[in-house]
Every structure is written in structure tokens, then in C-alpha cells.
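S.,

Sequence below, as promised.
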Amino acid sequence: MALSQGKSPKKASSSKKSKEGDTTTRYIAIGMVVFVLATAGIFAFMNSQASKKLTIPSSVSKADGYAIVVNPTAPVRVDFWEDFQCPNCRNFEAVSNAYFDDLVKAKKIKAVYHPMSFLGPESVLAAQAAACTADEGKFVQMHTMLYANQPSSENSGAWTNDVLIKLATAAGANKSTVSKCITSGKYVNWAQKVEDDASKKGVSSTPTVYVNGKELNRAHYLDLAALKKDLAAAGVK
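The prediction came back faster than expected:
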């Protein structure tokens, strides 16, 4: 009687594992669908901008490799090639951001930012969103905001236009103005120009930092004391 009323513990365990396995598989499948749809949406958005005329941010010139320039008349030039989705760039930022921000605020360096986008479509979205904030003099703040909120994985669908608008607004940009700029994809084509220029210059990894045209020792990137000595040697006081 008892045997007819239920299943053996072994069979019940097997059934439970099967259900758990089915549930896990279903969640993975759903996650993959969301990822594919998000990526497809980003590509569709960028493709829709491809035929538009090139528009560049107000602080950008071809002579500077289409980079965003802060303090154009400062005595020491520092070029930063980076990708906002790059984990190594985030690590470099964690070590040196406050130091370089102070130099920028004190107008001791001509900061030349080359936001690259070789890691994928969300790098393009982040770069062009940062360019939108540059028009309002908020690029440095957005630069910090993007690394502070870098997704744990690349092109996961985490950086949408809506999310980037929130970050740009938090960085101090006017919500109405920056929303229009970001959603229109105003600087998507500009992002490709930055990437093309980096390729011509032989920059193939991020971060890459030059001071007055000379590449910094990569062994110093995560050593703040060494970075400060390098900049001092270049004339930063």
C-alpha cells in the first residue's frame, strides 16, 4: 500500500534534478535570447547611422586624431587611447583617475582622449555618448562615470541608450540635450574615425598612454608613484 502511494526516493531525486536542469537550461536560453536581441538592436541602430554625414564633437579636430581635447593650450600633452568596455582600462582608471583629473582641472596637461570601440557595439554607444557630454564640457565627468559603471561582461546589453542617458545626466549633462544627442546616434560615425586613426598610428591595445608623443612605460600604468615621476620628467609640476 505504501509503495503504491509514492515513488522511491531515488526516482524522486532523479525527477527533481531533471526539473532543476530544465529550469537552468531555460534560464540560459532566455538569457541568450535577450543578449542576441540586444546586440541585434544595437547593430541595427548603428547601421541606421552609417549613411549619415560625419558630425564631430565641438572639441575635436582631425589634427588630433579626432580625439576629444581638454585644455588645448596646456604645456604637456597626454594622449589616452582606451575602450570604455576594457577591463584593463578600468584598472588603469582606478589607479590614476583622481591624479589625472586633478591635472586636467589645474590645466597642467592637454588631455587628449581617444575613445576606441574595437571591443564591440556597446563600446561605440559609450564612446558616442561620451562625445555628447563633451559638447557640454562634461566629458571628464562622463569618463569617470562610465568606468565606475562598466558592465561585468562586454556587449551584454547592459549599456543601452537609456542607461547611457542616465549616466550622462548624472555626470552633469543637460538631460534634454544629451538625450537627443545620444538617441539620434549623432556621433556614431565619429567613433569609427577615432578607431581608424588609432589603427593608422599602430595603437592596437588599450589602455595606451603617450606623453608629449612618447609612449609611457606600460609597467607603470598601475603604479601611481611611477606615473607621477613620468609626468614630472615630462614637465608636469
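The CA atoms of residues 105 and 186 lie 27 Å apart.

Coffee later?
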